Amino acid sequence: MTADNPAPQGPDPQGPAARPRPAPRRETARRPAPRRVTVRRVLPAALVLALAAAGTACDAMSNEPERYSQACGVVVDGSGSAVDAKTGFDAAAKLDARLDTFLKDRKCRKTSFAPITKVSMASKCQVSPLDLDPDGSKTSDRDRTRKALREVARSSAHKLLDCAKKQEPGSDVLGGLSRIALTKPSGDDASFDVLVVSDFDQGDPDFRLGRQDLSTDASRQKTADGFLKSHGKPELSGADIYPVGYGMKYHTDTSRYEQFNAFWTEVLERRMKAHVHTDYR
């Protein structure tokens, strides 16, 4: 045997039995998996009731109709021309036909009333203002309440008209406008809608429109100057005026109506700075 080829070794003289056995592994007891503990937070009964009430309130508010806030006025003419005769404009019928629609269209809340009589500012005829959309319980039927109160407003307007008809004959339209102007909300930006049931045929002890020269622009301006100087200018700047029965006396006389209309346009829009609409005329 050479060094490069060593002789094969024989079996281990000690044998397998002679080798040390590895120490036996100790069985480690398995730890049970930790139990999940669910913690339930119990809300106090008072808090549960409060949250439920809040949810109910929110639902009620979401179904609540939009509240009305518009300030409005109603002026009724009880002069001789207010009758239902052929020559009159039938103020009672105009109220029945237009008032409810006006109050609903304009979303009127606080609504005041004024008469047109021989001397309107001094007239004893009056009715109390009305709140047509009052605060109420969350369960109230607001639309039904509004409708019922508009009917109360119609009744109040008729009561005022009946009183005005019993006064001395006369038609102080500007005085009626001055009287309703006292209820206009303060502030330059305050909104105010006024329904005026009248033919606008001014006829009081000091001024009769039918006797005035309204044929030219110059004569109308001169008449308007004297008229406002003697009767005062109603504080209705920025107000929206809705006439009903306007100029009905002249419905068969086109040229006279044009003069009549030009005069009141001068007074109401240019001098008083009100806005006149024809929605209910």
Automatic annotation (TrEMBL):
Region (Disordered) location: 1-37
Top-rank lineage group of the source organism: Bacteria
Name the UniProt record assigns to this protein: Lipoprotein
